[in-house]
């Protein structure tokens, strides 16, 4: 069969033709395809032949009454499978949107908060709403603020003091940043650390474009205190891991420090600072995105977890 497919012929290929082709490939025969389609064997055979006629080339070799797909059929099968799976996902999503237990709460947060605040809040949410579904996306500023303004998420958690356009913000908690030290470090003997205490010590920093890094560097510069700045990273979690390995001391946000102390197996300690580097966590809600029923219990869970972290903080320092 010689190919002569043109735009007119291609426009006459219908979803039913592709459905018959898929059924034949799945069942391995026209008879089996007819059973899958709840149709008759002659009808399925006729529609398959019509598809080949419209395409202008054969899809199967006919051998002793059996069909064997050729290379073109196998290539088409790959494409059909991808499209069918995509369609099935669309259908599943459409059906799920009609079920009250299928909506997924989308939370956007800074990576540090995905590590230190959101897990506890998620546990509280699922305890209160066992059938809730939650998606957590870590993202740094300024994309976090841009995505919240675009109404792409149900809730956002960030450190921003200014409210992104199209949202409303609520401060969950405000604490000061803290020093993190390797267990057994000489400075661990002191309950509160001064700027001078860091003089000459290896210091693990956040990246140079981090606003907290700039604020901390400015404080040391104003005090004339020199540190050994050899390591830096974008992640406060990574800072704590490096400190735990004895690579230096650091100053990080209190939530990551608390999580690091709890999960470091005794390899990390934190100490208060005699100077203040405020750290605030804000909860951001979009103004123009219809709220899911799970938003209210998640807001309550975040408030409860923030209060619990504050209480734990006061016990430790």
Using the coordinates shown, work out and report the CATH topology of the largest domain.
D-Maltodextrin-Binding Protein, domain 2
Q: Give the uncertain stretches in residue-range form.
A: none
In spatial order, strands of the major sheet run 4-3-5-13-6
- Nearest-angstrom radius of gyration? 30 Å
Largest sheet: 5 strands, mixed
Task: Specify the CATH homologous superfamily of the largest domain.
Answer: Periplasmic binding protein-like II
Distance between the termini: 82 Å
How much of the sequence lies in strands comes to: 15-25%
Q: Portion of residues in helices?
A: 40-55%
Overall pLDDT metric: 88
Count of distinct structural domains: 3
Query: What overall geometry do the principal axes of the alpha carbons give?
Result: elongated
CATH architecture of the largest domain: 3-Layer(aba) Sandwich
Secondary-structure element series: HHHHEEHEHHEHEEEEEHEHEHEEH
Structural class: alpha/beta
Query: What is the β-strand count?
Result: 13
Supply the CATH class of the largest domain: Alpha Beta
């Amino acid at each position: 069969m010689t190919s002569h497919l043109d735009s007119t012929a291609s426009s006459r290929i219908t979803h039913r033709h592709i459905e018959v082709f898929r059924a034949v490939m799945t069942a391995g025969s026209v008879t089996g395809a007819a059973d899958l389609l709840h149709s008759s064997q002659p009808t399925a055979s006729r529609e398959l032949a019509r598809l080949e006629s419209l395409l202008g080339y054969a899809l199967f070799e006919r051998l002793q009454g059996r069909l064997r797909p050729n290379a073109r059929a196998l290539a088409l099968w790959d494409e059909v499978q991808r499209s069918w799976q995509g369609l099935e996902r669309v259908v599943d999503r459409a059906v799920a949107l009609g079920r009250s237990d299928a909506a997924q709460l989308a939370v956007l947060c800074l990576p540090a908060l995905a590590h230190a605040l959101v897990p506890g809040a998620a546990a509280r949410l699922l305890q209160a709403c066992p059938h809730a579904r939650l998606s957590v996306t870590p993202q740094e500023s300024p994309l976090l603020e841009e995505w919240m303004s675009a109404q792409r998420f149900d809730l956002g958690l960030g450190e921003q003091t200014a409210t992104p356009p199209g949202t409303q913000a609520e401060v969950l908690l405000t604490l000061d940043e803290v020093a993190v030290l390797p267990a057994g470090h000489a400075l661990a003997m002191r309950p509160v650390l001064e700027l001078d205490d860091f003089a000459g010590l290896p210091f693990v920093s956040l990246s140079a474009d981090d606003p907290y890094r700039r604020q901390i560097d400015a404080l040391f510069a104003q005090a004339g205190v020199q540190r050994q700045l050899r390591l830096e990273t974008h992640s406060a979690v990574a800072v704590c891991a490096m400190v735990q390995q004895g690579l230096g001391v650091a100053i990080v946000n209190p939530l990551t420090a608390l999580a690091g102390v709890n999960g470091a197996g005794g390899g990390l300690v934190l100490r208060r600072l005699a100077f203040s580097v405020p750290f605030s966590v804000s909860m951001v809600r979009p103004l123009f995105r219809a709220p899911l029923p799970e938003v209210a219990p998640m807001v309550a869970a975040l408030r409860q977890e923030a209060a619990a972290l504050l209480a734990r903080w006061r016990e430790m320092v």
